[in-house]
Amino acid sequence: MTILRVVVGFGLCCSLSIALALLAFWKREIEILWIAFFGVCRILPSIVLIVLLLVFVPLTWLPFFIQACVVLPLMYEQAFKSLESFEQDMYLFLRFYRISYWKRFQKLYLPKILQEMYKNLESILGLCFKVTIAGELLAQEETSVGGEIFIQKMYLNLSTVFAWCFILLLLHFFMLMLLKRFGVGYESLDKSSL
Question: Under a CB-based contact definition with an 8 Å cutoff, are residues 72 and 17 in contact?
Fold first, then answer.
């Protein structure tokens, strides 16, 4: 269940950050909303967010909401900065040849965003693992790594806690290798793709 929560949460955060960054890029007024929400998430410590979410969110959804509050702001910031980093001649090129928004998204914006996210993939995935385990630990989910660590900690069974930590490191490594294997195509970007 932990792997499923990490994969689903990471995918949701990634797709939501791309959608929010594109909305803010095309309509600059919307950016104020995201800055306010993500500013609150960035300022408050993670443990405070987790405690607040424990009160208002069902326990089964807690890891996803924690990922949204901790991981999503970082991914959004990367996505938005990658869109802002386009050169002025690229805008003139797109406007002059009247390239549709869908083609811009598919051939230019999405590869550029994924290229920037690919650079920080290891730290983002590691953070996603951390906050998911923290949410499971505090929610005391029985069918999860976080819940198992919580139970073993109560019985002072440190060897099992260390074993779970080692398993988490291996899971993170294999997921990272898998994502990097699929991300090979996002190393170069030019106008010829349009």
Answer: yes
Q: How far is it, in rounded angstroms, from Cα 183 to Cα 115?
A: 8
User: Considering the entire predicted model, what is its pTM?
Assistant: 0.74
Residues in contact with 28: Cβ distance below 8 Å, sequence separation at least 6, in sequence order: none
Contact 92, 63 (CB under 8 A): no
Residue 45's φ and ψ, nearest 5 degrees, are -65, 150
CA torsion, points 84, 87, 93, 99, in degrees to nearest 10?
-20
- Whole-number Å distance between alpha carbons of 56 and 127: 23
Which residue carries 């990471």 as its tokens? 10
Q: Domains in the chain, ordered, with CATH?
A: 2-193 (1.10.3720.10)
**What's at 101, amino acid-wise?**
Y
**Interval 93-125: pLDDT, tens:** 666 667 677 777 777 777 778 877 877 877 888
pLDDT digits (tens, 9 = 90+) for 31-80: 777 777 777 777 777 777 777 887 888 877 888 888 888 888 888 888 88
